[in-house]
UniProtKB/TrEMBL annotation:
Keywords: Repeat. HEAT repeats lie at residues 218-240. Gene3D superfamilies: Leucine-rich Repeat Variant. This is Serine/threonine-protein phosphatase 4 regulatory subunit 1. Residues 1-40 are annotated as: Disordered. It comes from the Eukaryota. GO terms for molecular function: protein phosphatase regulator activity. One of its GO terms (cellular component) is cytoplasm. Residues 1-11 have a biased composition (Low complexity). InterPro entries: ARM-like (IPR011989), ARM-type_fold (IPR016024), HEAT_type_2 (IPR021133), PP2A_Regulatory_Subunit_A (IPR051023). Residues 12-29 have a biased composition (Basic and acidic residues). SUPFAM superfamilies: ARM repeat.
Length: 240
């Protein structure tokens, strides 16, 4: 339910990058650690933004997983509307969505929604904020449940594109984690589509790294996938 049509997704990301370029020229990024209240911005009515932020209020008995999921699903759109200069208005809400709270049940569904939109947030917020606020969360999601990290894997290339070259390199040793199910060994055997997506992403991200990095990290993964029992996985892996 968190996945967009591929053509619509590509179009959306292109529009985000155009908006991102225009925004970066006109408005600077907020200093690290700055706190902003809804009343500090004039993009949307402060009362409306307050209502959105209250969707993750753990003290509200009406708050449940579905409300939190709607909040997470809307986060990229709200971030795009406000612009990166007002990301501090949303930072605390983002942190709440990515943490287990006693009042939230089945929080993995919320993390799954965020995982599918991490690449969109990265495009909207740019390299600086992504490095500071998104990379730590992205790193944790790589080791999350398969139902969550599939969102990370499916959009891996789009996220890595936003990062600086030295930041991309830190994720190379983590790629083999996608070969093993975070749930159980039986899930890993059955979930061949997970391995297929990994093979397809290896093809895409190979252009983002230097040849030596490809040989040291991507080629060994591809050689493993070439031996897969599923034909579609093998065919995708030979393209790396």
């Amino acid at each position: 339910d968190s996945q967009l049509d591929l053509s619509s997704e590509s179009s959306l990301l292109r529009e985000m990058r155009i908006t991102d370029d225009e925004t970066s020229m006109d408005k600077g990024e907020p200093p690290p650690g700055v706190k902003l209240a809804p009343t500090d911005q004039d993009i949307v009515p402060p009362e409306l933004l307050v209502q959105y932020l209250c969707m993750t209020d753990g003290s509200n008995s009406a708050t449940d997983t579905e409300i939190a999921r709607h909040c997470a699903y809307s986060l990229p759109a709200v971030a795009l509307t406000l612009g990166r200069q007002y990301w501090p208005c949303l930072k605390d809400t983002f942190d709440v969505l990515m943490n287990e709270l006693p009042s939230f049940v089945m929080m993995w569904k919320v993390r799954r929604t965020v995982a599918f939109s991490m690449h969109q947030l990265a495009v909207i917020l740019g390299p600086e904020i992504t490095s500071r606020d998104l990379i730590p969360v992205f790193s944790r999601l790589i080791s999350d449940l398969d139902e969550v990290r599939i969102g990370i894997l499916q959009n891996l290339c789009e996220f890595l594109k936003v990062l600086r070259p030295e930041e991309r390199k830190q994720f190379l040793p983590s790629l083999p984690k996608f070969l093993v199910s975070a749930n159980d060994a039986e899930s890993n055997f059955k979930n061949w589509r997970f391995r297929l997506i990994l093979a397809e992403q290896l093809v895409l991200i190979s252009d983002l790294f230097e040849s030596q990095e490809v040989r040291d990290h991507l080629v060994p993964l591809a050689l493993t996938l070439i031996k897969d029992k599923i034909c579609e996985v093998r065919l995708a892996a030979v393209r790396v």
